[in-house]
Amino acid sequence: MVKSGTLILEVAARLLVPLQLLFSLFLLQRGHDEPGGGFIAGLVAAGGLALFLFAHGRQALRALLKVSPRDLIGLGLLIGVLSTLPAWWWGEPLFTAQWWRIPGIGLEISTPLIFDIGVYLAVIGSVLTAIIALVETDRDDVIR
Amino acid sequence: MQQAVLAGFVMAGLAPLLHRWLGARTAPMMALLPASLVLWLLWQWPLIAAGETLLLAWPWVPALGVSLTFFLDGLAWLFALLICAIGALVLVYSGDYLRDDPDQPRFLVLIVAFMMAMLGLVLADNLVTLFIFWELTSLTSYLLIGFHHEDPAARKAALQSLMVTAGGGLALLAGLVMLAQAGGSWSLAELAGRGEAVQAHALHGPLLVCVLLGAFTKSAQFPFHFWLPNAMAAPTPVSAYLHSATMVKAGIYLLARLHPVLGSSDAWVVTLSLVGALTMALGACLAIRQTHLKILLAYSTVMALGAMTLLLGIGSRAALAAFVVFLVAHALYKGAMFLVAGILDQATGTRDLTGMGGLRHRMPWTALVAGLAALSLAGLPPLLGFIGKEALFAAVLEADRLRGVILPLAFLAALLTLAVAALMVLRPFFGAVRETPRPPREGSPAMLAGPVLLVGLSLWLGLAPHGLEALVTATVQGLGVREAAVHLTLWHGITLPLGLSLASLLLGALVVRHWEGVRVWSARLEPLMALGPEGGYAAVMRGWLRLAEAQTRWLQNGHLRSYLVMTLLVLLGLVGHALFVRHGTLAAPVPSARGHEAVVAALMVAGAVTACLMRSRLAAVAALGAMGFSIALIFVLFSAPDLAITQLLVETLTVVLLALVLFRLPRFAILSTPLQRLRDLGVASLVGGLISLLMLSVLGGEQLPRISAYMIANGLPMGHGHNLVNVILVDFRALDTLGEVIVLGLAATGVFAMLGLRPEDPASRREARAGEGGHG
């Protein structure tokens, strides 16, 4: 049941998935000031990738992601933990937010943003891991 | 200092990489770190000798008063020096001892990690920091005892030591928390001055029991002594380092460190004196029965640990000075003896004392070193061990409490230790030459360097003990005794301690002469040993497993519905208790709703009720979806866009997941009886009602406006963000978010483990394994 083979779904996925992924990045970036954030963005991206999975099959999703979704969980958690450490370097308690403004272009980088990216990746990884595990119980799919 | 310890952990992690580049030279190279720490400590000596303390603070969780603060006074300095110096020697030695072992990198990782944990333990000022390093030493010790993990005996011994020391660690954790409450501080340096307040506190009794349990298990005091001889399954450098010179002294260190706080109470004096004296005598008695070199040494370590506990229990100035001398003397000779045991083991291929003989011709240097170390162990002049033993006797003779009990026990221990020391030398090195499994050869320079250095120090400090006086004085000051100028000499004149030494010498010689007889006689007591503490340990473990099995059958029965009922009932109990018993009456506002809100609420209720009544799963899912979207609508109405978006997305993904699950479920059937359904209805109503009350009481409380006001006021200036929800998630409450994301990841991993790795499904297992490695 994984690869639908439905023309409508495939065409819709071709249009929607890139849009959803872009939208998730947009939500992630603006999350600190407008509705959005890593958790929501991660769910949007996971939804998009799940759509891709149903339209094109598991192998295609693997080719797209390059890494296993389980590794995304680990990577996300690692980024989340690492983002708490810089504060320590400046003698402040762990988890204290640090903000850096890149001069010239006025771009702000902060540990909360890095933390949010970690959340984003971990959410994508978790949702996809669960969905793929459920999909893989389909014996036919394993043989194919 | 903190940097050095952390760098040590990093270096431990890099050991395998270093080993690839440097090969056999890795271990000596890694010894440079502890060696340089020794230099740093020596450089700090003038400060310590002047009675100053060095405090290096590094805040960690300041809101909870937890900090990575290191604290260097005489006591910590002495322990740190022993840890680094013996650690460096052991590292050099193990490079040769494990030369041909393919697992040498793993060994280096563990032993350096242990070294740093131990160093952190003795330098820690904060009780939480101390506890973390304490547990780290237990863990690394577990891994090191089980180093030869193919050997079931090693695994069993490792598990036993972990069960005993980590069990004690749990007690210690409780004890330290109570100590911090009683003393009003997490800092050892501050607690040292609050002894009276702690002892007058209501928690003094329980906290003393817990702390002593932790210290006694770690330092192998009776009745927990049995794990230490079993721990000899570890490679010999580990035995030399962890199980004689350092880790087992962690408990002793803790007792010494807490001596100023807890030391003056009757319970402390009596418990420590009795347990120490018993352990001392028992260790010596059990040692004399052994023929296995390392186990014999292990029991003699038990004896020494008992002696140190006894001295801390007596607690007079003379006893504390004797404690320090004994500690140094023991570290020097016992480290040397274990290293010699390793050389013997490697050179001859056996560890059985009765299987060696006449080795002095083949291994003259080893024999010399072993002889000197044994003289110190026996407590004979002119070595440091003699001064230590004389000081011990003098302190015991002056003891205020229980002198009639501890003096005979100490005397028995001394005479048997003397016999043990004599056997250690006479058996392997003298007498007729015996065939050994391997032709004996002299140990390599790298392996001899350590014991030679340690024995040389024993001899030098024995001949010139005033070199040690300043150190003993500084350490005794760290134990809370001011004005403690200590004088040490080899010759005290004709005194009672000297008489006791002479008597123990004569009786000890008698024991050596009739060793075979003693062993045969004590072998008849073997059946009694099964009743000892080790038998008790086995019984406790059996009972524990049985309990685990019973509770698994009862609680983990595999039925999702009973898990759900159980979880909800526990929630009901805990939250209900907090709400009604601890908070008392509720000041809930009467809820009011406008027309369109009431419609949405009615939709939600309708969705929930429909989901319960439906006989088709798909319809139930749809009904639940209707309820979820109504909740999202509520969020929109109350202008919480983030929550609404999240709710919508979760609903969508839930539908996807349920669609995948539904196809795999068996045909819908009603399996529960009406009575069960009635029970479920009751539980559900109670939980729903309770949560509603909880919400109302939160809304009616005074906390809420204050929290909201704080968040609104600080979101932009402190969190740099306009979206408060996100600022709370990633900044103000980032730790909570991290925890939630970890739970999410674990849940997904659990789904994967249950579905993807089913044992009866080899095809999907292959798939999963292919998924592990890169797939393209």
Identify the most extensive interface between protein chains.
A-B, 59 and 54 residues
Helix percentage of chain B: over 70%
Q: Count of DSSP E strands of chain B?
A: 4
- The parts of chain B where pLDDT drops under 50 for at least 5 residues are 770-776
Low-confidence stretches of chain A: 139-144
Strand order of the largest sheet of chain A: 1-2
Query: Helical segment tally of chain B?
Result: 35
Strand count, sense and barrel status of the largest sheet of chain A are: 2 strands, antiparallel
Q: Specify the overall morphology of chain B.
A: elongated
> Which class best fits the helix and strand makeup of chain B?
mainly alpha
Could you walk me through the main structural features you see in this protein, from its secondary elements to its overall organization?
The complex is a heterodimer of chains A (144) and B (776). Chain A has 144 residues and is mainly α. Chain A is built from seven helices and two strands; from the N terminus they run αααααββαα. Chain A has helices at 7-30, 38-56, 58-65, 69-82, 86-89, 111-136, 139-143, and strands at residues 99-102, 107-110. Chain A has a two-stranded antiparallel ribbon with strand order 1-2. In chain A, strand 1 (99-102) and strand 2 (107-110) form a beta hairpin. In chain A, helix 1 runs antiparallel to helix 2. The longest helix of chain A has 26 residues, at 111-136. The radius of gyration of chain A is 18 Å and the shape is elongated. Chain B is mainly α and 776 residues long. Chain B is 75% helix and 1% strand. In chain B, the strands form two sheets. In chain B, strands 1-4 form a two-stranded antiparallel ribbon. A two-stranded antiparallel ribbon of chain B has the order 2-3. In chain B, helix 17 crosses helix 19 (384-397) and helix 18 runs parallel beside helix 21 (445-463). Chain B starts with a helix and ends with a helix. Residues 770-776 of chain B have low confidence and may be disordered. Classes of the chains: A mainly alpha (144), B mainly alpha (776). The interface between A and B is large, with 59 and 54 residues.
